[in-house]
Design brief:
With 597 residues, this protein is mostly helical. It contains 22 helices and 2 strands.
Amino acid sequence: MVTGIEAAGGGQGNGIGKRSCFCSKEDFLPEESFKSWGNYVHALANTKTRLTDRILARSMDHQELEQMRARSHNQMKKTLNWWDLIWFGIGAVMGAGIFVLTGQAARNDAGPAVVISYFISGVSELLSVLCYTEFSVELPVAGGSFSYLRVELGDFVAYIAAGNILFEYVVAGASVARSWTSYFATLCNHNPNDFRINVPALADNFNHLDPIAVVISILVCIGAALSMKASSRFNSVTTIVHLVVLVFIFITGMTKANPANFTTNFLPFGFRGVLKASAVLFFAYIGFDGVATLGEEIKNPGRDIPIGLIGSMLVTITTYCVLSATLCLMQPYSQIDADASFTMAFQAAGMNWAKYIVALGAIKGMTTVLLANLIAQARYFTHIGRTHMAPPILASIHPKTGTPVNATVIMTVANSLVALFTSLDVLANLLSISTLFIFSLVSLALIVRRYYVTGETSTSDRNKLIGFLTLIVGSSIATAVYWVLSQGWIGYVVTGVLWFAASLGLQLTLKQAKKPKLWGVPLVPWLPSASIAFNVFILGSIDVPSFIRFAIWTLALLVYYIFVALHASYDAARETDRVEAQASQASQATNMEAGTS
């Protein structure tokens, strides 16, 4: 592990060097505010001033692209193209979700119309993909959504998002690792918990230790840390094999298809059931945002990122719709098993051996999800470490491998600890809230990026933008609340008119202040506005206790921010301002000398 106060670039602990092979305080808190207790007390005394500064502070494109990257001392290797990104996108998204969620949605919510539910949730996810694509083309940096929010909505919002990104990736990685053990047990003709160690002394949901989940996480870590290109090749081959397995399931299932199962009662729960199922199935598409963190390793971001992100999502939507239709053709929806839908459908058709194919497909899918999850996780926190909102030791890029080894190892340790102990049943919905929260913020940030430029947009136009965005978000929240509390339709007319009027007003009364240089989302503000509405609507399907846990987690983030991250990032920002001022003075002096000559 690379250590040293030069981890983040020069000055006060802004760079990563090779001082020693052991960690010290300087690797985690090198900033001036933490040099002594006296400095820290002085920093705390100025918390109000610093908080005001950081809440209002917004980064700039060139700072994210140049200065933040420089703090890693070494550069990531540009080895990826659009072909790699397509397979990374598919591999990051297409895990066991199709096998787990389809039966639940078809049996309990949508019936055969689960195909429509998959399409609706896929389209809503595609809207988020479009927003991420424009940002990642304009800002091809490892920070992904953290960087986009830092530029458009400011440091504080970016920090809250970063904390939720941390939670999202740790819980998702641990959850997939434990699911890997479950499907591996099925493949070996065992119950899922047979390969786990039961410790009665521990509390429920924490007493089934999963060493296999830890081992598979470590193996993935080694591959991700050693070589990005090798990881990409492994992901491509494994994902292609996974798709071949899914095609086999489709062809074999269609040999047992009965059209009557599909057409006799296509909408048993009505359209409300279709929408309810789409809210559940939305989470089968999660994972694409990790591709946006690969920006620093892509050869031609302007071409490769749109093809990779959008292409992989279109393949995923098509695959999910086709496989869900296959399941509903094989069995009447009322007979579909909610927990092991494909396995039981093949067993009912006299093809008990097919459960091994399903388990094999799930294992291959989850392996690529684990790899893509860890790669994205490490790159997110490399960039967050560059800003000093997380310890700058995370910002290190290994000079030989060109990968963020420190962040990869540290995140693997976090994933493994959670995977070893926790069943994650309680945390699953909290993960969903974090993801939808970040997707909504990115869509909102895209509208801000198009319509507001500091120093150019007038005060009246800024106030109009704030008003329209408030109406868009408010009407979206009202729609979600009405969905939960009422069975009627009149409320949707009111909230829908408000959303439409706000989006139309934004288009007609404000001129876009910034146009994308290489690739942009079409139909702005309509598509990002629709993305906000979809994401907030799906948030309405999540239970109240999960929102309470989300509030507690956010409160914990705020405590860390007030006592640590605020002062670390403030010092790092002041150091950046000092370096920029010196560079500007040097440039002016050079120009004056040239003029004198």
